Amino acid sequence: MRVLVCGGAGYIGSHMVRRLIRAGHTPVVFDNMSTGHAWALKEAFMGAEEKGITPVAVEGDVLNLQALETLFDNHEFDAVMHFSARSLVSESVEKPELYYHGILVGSLNLLAVANRAKIDNFIFSSTASVYGTPECMPIEENCLTKPITPYGHATKMVEMILEDYAQAHGLKSVALRYFNAAGADPEGGLGELHEPETHLIPNVLRAILGQTPPLEIFGNDYPTPDGTCIRDYVYVNDVADAHLLALEKLAGQSERGFTAYNIGSGRGFSVLEVMAAAERVTGQWVPYKFAHRRAGDPPVLVAAAEKARKELGWSPQLPILDEIIRTAWNFMNSRAA
Ligand SMILES: NC(=O)c1ccc[n+]([C@@H]2O[C@H](COP(=O)([O-])OP(=O)(O)OC[C@H]3O[C@@H](n4cnc5c(N)ncnc54)[C@H](O)[C@@H]3O)[C@@H](O)[C@H]2O)c1
């Protein structure tokens, strides 16, 4: 299939592009390179030629409707994957306008051009943030979605738009609500590199490498066993595999509809537990200090991912935290070398 990957030069998107090529699909990447990397695209495209695949990269912004129209005039697609958004939760609290605009207008633009081109398979990168501070744990998809940040609100709104598009325009779509994507492809060359980095695992590893000041742990007074936040870490290639399975499901589905799936490992680890795992993997201490809580951080987020198992046939291939951290550590060391 020819798959438009918006945001394909980013962390998860570049792993997706490599996975698509390995599976015999042709990715067309559309990315404004705001947080994406040219080196990641180059790495992700490697090996395509041997498979007879010609991947394409187009620089452009999903907020620019005209650029999207040109893209759709020049290429044919069977499906769209939408990874292209800002995703700094704290920044969304400070600058809600940036997040509502970026997430809503970007998604509406993409849906408009996809609808005009009669492309009815759409996979959206959603987030555990749609649940806010959840009332049930582990979190099932039918738990109340009550976001507590503009990032979560806007993402939830896109899910509602997708549902309405199914009714109005016959769209078939899936929202994958990722928990905390982590790790790097063991084949090498790809990994997580954000600036600023807000994700725990790369920040723990950067602190170990002395690339940053001591790690700041935001809050040690949460209602959790050790007082630090608990999160569900899911391996980045497992996230990409969930998209491949969703793609197959949508392609084989005749009826319109929208479905949301949690993509998480089903296990939660506190910040202190992640640090301990990183120390086991690296054999080095994590320098750290405690800081105040951040706005918009719920104490615990752990997925129930049964629905994705049952309906997509998805199950994490790398569920062990130490192994996920090891892949991230190898990536960081390869970039430092
Ligand atoms: N990383 C996670 O753990 C996580 C968790 C939940 C949800 N998500 C969602 O998954 C998606 C991808 O996350 P990521 O960690 O790979 O982020 P990322 O920042 O590494 O990648 C996003 C990519 O989209 C591009 N992009 C951003 N705005 C764009 C625009 N307006 N037009 C075109 N391209 C644009 C960026 O240049 C980048 O290449 C995001 O939507 C994010 O909200 C990520």
Question: What features would you describe in this structure?
Answer:
The structure is a single chain. With 337 residues, the protein is an alpha/beta fold. Helices cover 41% and strands 18% of the residues. The strands form four sheets. A seven-stranded parallel sheet has the order 3-2-1-4-5-6-11, with helices on both faces. The chain has a three-stranded mixed sheet with strand order 12-9-14. A two-stranded parallel ribbon has the order 7-10. The mean pLDDT is 96. The structure holds nicotinamide-adenine-dinucleotide. Nicotinamide-adenine-dinucleotide is lined by residues 6-7, 9-13, 31-36, 61-63, 83-85, 87, 102, 106, 125, 127, 178, 180-181, 194.
Strand content: 15-25%
What are the segments in which pLDDT stays under 50 over at least 5 consecutive residues? none
Cα-atom radius of gyration:
19 Å
Heteromolecules bound: nicotinamide-adenine-dinucleotide
Gross morphology: globular
Count of β-strands: 14
What is the count of DSSP helices, taking H or I runs of 4+ residues?
Answer: 11
Terminal CA distance reads 37 Å
What's the assembly state of these chains?
Answer: single chain
For the residues shown, what is the average pLDDT? 96
Major β-sheet annotation: 7 strands, parallel
Helix content: 40-55%
- How are strands sequenced across the largest beta sheet? 3-2-1-4-5-6-11
* Structural class by secondary-structure content: alpha/beta
Q: What sequence of helices (H) and strands (E) makes up the elements?
A: EHEHEHEHHEHEEHEEEHEEHEEHH
